């Protein structure tokens, strides 16, 4: 199927994605104090890529998205969208209505008093009078995008009469109807029931791959980020702290912040004893360990072991070599049980699929898969 963003474009056109450099955004709060929301943000999203902005509440993700959309004017920096300069050195060059971007908002923000076709037509009917397409052209574009998104049969339906998946298609059709090649998503799935969310996520990813638009997607949900992204950008206090593939971010975090925020890990302080090729020797409270790690690390670092990379057995029956420990707490969490185990001076979080290894006070033997561990640079 041809991508909707090509509806009004030459299919041979090379599209340029989004480029942000040196972006800085300072707000003034109610007492006129400065709030720095973004600092020195550089971002390159190639055309057709799915980029997820990930980070805790207040880290600046929405502000970055809104600057790209033109809903905020940055204090400094440059933004190029689809090859067009939108902001140059902090000066707005393209107003929001002239930027080739569509937006999909939280819970889709569709108009309940309009039917599907009217919702999708909305962006074409709100620009300056002279710039709006004629009615017949609006109808043609809406029909075309509804056909492409396979919801043409729903054109007359009210929004309240649609399933979650159908609403998502309407929101995407509305974002793409003006021929935009870039779609910005502001936590669209965050208010949606967990089970439905998984299906909608899969459908969204399939549509993005099929139609080839550039996606920039804000979330604080790491699972959503890992599943959807080609590139994840992790923000903290207005700065980008790591950019990489989902595999980079999950398996090879480069700071305590990223290791802590993505996945559930034990982070254990260590002193670097040796470094060879891609392995690091670390002295830790567990003794000496040799595990994978990045080059140029030290003199101190953190041993990262995922909770699910540990094994556990009762002390009296264990045939394996490991550290002796005592269970402090045990929580059944469905697919696995979480044990908090005291090993010497450390408390280690362990996820095991068996619940019967003992409750608080039980003696256990435990260990982790050294090849699955990772050394994280200290600080940050
Ligand atoms: N209009 C504004 N005026 C003053 N401060 C603002 C304004 N908008 C955002 N901020 C501040 O900028 C910082 C970044 O906010 P932003 O909404 O971008 O974070 P976020 O990562 O999207 O958070 P959340 O996930 O909670 O939406 C926060 O400290 C926030 O309080």
Would you write up a description of this structure?
The protein is α+β, with helices and mostly antiparallel strands. It has 2 domains: 243 residues, 3-Layer(aba) Sandwich (Rossmann fold), CATH 3.40.50; 65 residues, Nucleic acid-binding proteins (OB fold (Dihydrolipoamide Acetyltransferase, E2P), Beta Barrel), CATH 2.40.50. 21% of the residues lie in helices and 36% in strands. It has 8 helices and 21 strands. It is elongated and about 80 Å long. The strands form 4 sheets. A 6-stranded mixed sheet has the order 7-8-9-3-10-11, sandwiched between helices. Strand 10 and strand 11 form a beta hairpin. The site of adenosine-5'-triphosphate has 13 residues, from strand 2 and helix 1. It comes from Dactylosporangium maewongense. Keywords: ATP-binding, Cell membrane, Ion transport, Iron, Iron transport, Membrane, Nucleotide-binding, Transport. This is ABC transporter ATP-binding protein. GO terms for molecular function: ATP binding. InterPro entries: AAA+_ATPase, ABC_SmlMolc_Importer, ABC_transporter-like_ATP-bd, ABC_transporter-like_CS, ABC_transpr_FbpC, Mo/tungstate-bd_C_term_dom, P-loop_NTPase.
């Amino acid at each position: 199927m041809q991508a909707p963003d090509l509806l009004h474009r030459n299919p041979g056109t090379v599209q340029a994605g989004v480029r942000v450099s040196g972006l800085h955004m300072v707000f003034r709060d109610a007492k006129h104090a400065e709030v720095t929301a973004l600092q020195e943000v550089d971002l390159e999203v190639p055309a057709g890529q799915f980029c997820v902005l990930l980070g805790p509440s207040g880290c600046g993700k929405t502000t970055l998205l809104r600057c790209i959309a033109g809903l905020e004017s940055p204090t400094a920096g440059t933004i190029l969208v689809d090859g067009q300069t939108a902001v140059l050195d902090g000066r707005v060059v393209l107003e929001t209505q002239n930027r080739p971007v569509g937006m999909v908002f939280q819970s889709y923000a569709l108009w309940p008093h309009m039917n599907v076709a009217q919702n999708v037509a909305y962006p074409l009917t709100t620009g300056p009078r002279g710039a709006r397409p004629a009615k017949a052209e609006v109808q043609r574009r809406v029909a075309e995008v509804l056909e492409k998104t396979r919801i043409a049969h729903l054109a007359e339906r009210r929004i309240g009469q649609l399933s979650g998946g159908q609403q998502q298609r309407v929101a995407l059709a509305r974002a793409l109807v003006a021929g935009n090649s870039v779609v910005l998503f502001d936590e669209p799935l965050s208010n949606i029931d967990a089970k439905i969310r998984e299906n909608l996520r899969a459908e969204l990813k399939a549509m993005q791959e099929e139609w080839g638009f550039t996606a920039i997607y804000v979330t604080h949900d790491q699972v959503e980020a890992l599943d959807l992204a080609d590139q994840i950008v992790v923000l903290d206090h207005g700065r980008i702290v790591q950019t990489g593939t989902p595999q980079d971010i999950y398996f090879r975090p480069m700071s305590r912040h990223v290791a802590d925020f993505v996945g559930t890990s034990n982070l254990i302080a260590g002193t670097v004893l040796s470094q060879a090729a891609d392995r690091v020797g670390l002295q830790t409270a567990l003794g000496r360990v040799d595990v994978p790690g990045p080059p140029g690390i030290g003199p101190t670092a953190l041993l990262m072991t995922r909770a699910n990379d540990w094994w556990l057995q009762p002390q009296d029956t264990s045939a394996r070599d490991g550290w002796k420990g005592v269970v402090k707490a045990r929580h059944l969490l469905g697919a696995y049980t979480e044990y908090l185990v005291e090993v010497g001076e450390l408390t280690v979080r362990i996820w095991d699929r068996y619940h019967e290894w003992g409750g608080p006070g039980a003696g256990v033997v435990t260990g982790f898969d050294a090849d699955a561990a990772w050394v994280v640079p200290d600080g940050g």
